[in-house]
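batch job 7 of whatever, protein = Tyr recombinase domain-containing protein
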Amino acid sequence: MKNPLYIRLHAGFGEWLRILNFEHTSQRDMPIMLEAFLCFLEANDCDSITGITENHLKSYLGYLSEQPCKTKEGTLSLNYIRKHLQVIRKFARYLSESGQESFAVKVKIKGKATNIKGILSKKEITKLYAATEESVLGLRDRALLTLFYGCGLRKSEGLNLNTDDILLEKELVLVKRGKGYKARFVPLTGGNKKDLEYYLNYSRPYLLSGRKENALLLNVNGKRLRTAFERMQKLRSASGINKPLGPHTLRHSIATHLLQSGMKLEQIQRFLGHSSLESTQIYTHIIHEQL
């Protein structure tokens, strides 16, 4: 990339992602995808933001569809191409919100919206809960399921929670550091409240062992839990589920289940903390594909 304007905007986009508290993987991968797009524009003699047209976007998506996949035979998947388009949309949003000249992204990709293997059924969720043990770490496992499935939190949102963010009497979880540093309250009722209460009363004090720590989720050393990957894999193995499992799998699953139960898309948007309804609409595609 040689265009000074594109180099400056690329750097600004990366900083914008960091300031708005995007996931670490997003801060790492999105600038790489944006660089590929900007290099494509350079190669096609488009050297300004105002010069970006719908034809440029369509040509770029066509170009991506012909690129070989590095991890398996064939070309890039539709999901991966869709991620590139999402990055372009976010780049246009960054330009607009930072008071710079932006461009419209009206192009849409037809086809399946997501990988259904990433969504657990309600029966599989039940198996996950049944796989938790009546132990210190088992109670923490149920707290993990409560936060990432029951409350639909992002990975960073759940791991960054402190004990004072759990408002048991008000039956709410306060997410102070959501994406874009936007705070929101998430309802905490029924079994979700019970599981967090048990963890706070019986598991967390044991893990804490008299230390001082504000973090809600603790590791075996009484420090803030930094990753839930290992425990998620143990639960997946114990429950006999063959699908990938992580915090975002649980978040996607609860959103899909809420939509299936009849909850309005706008309510799910607020529950998940999406800044736009467009991000939430992907779950309607998932429902249609399952049908």
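notes: The beta strands are 166-167, 172-175, 184-187.
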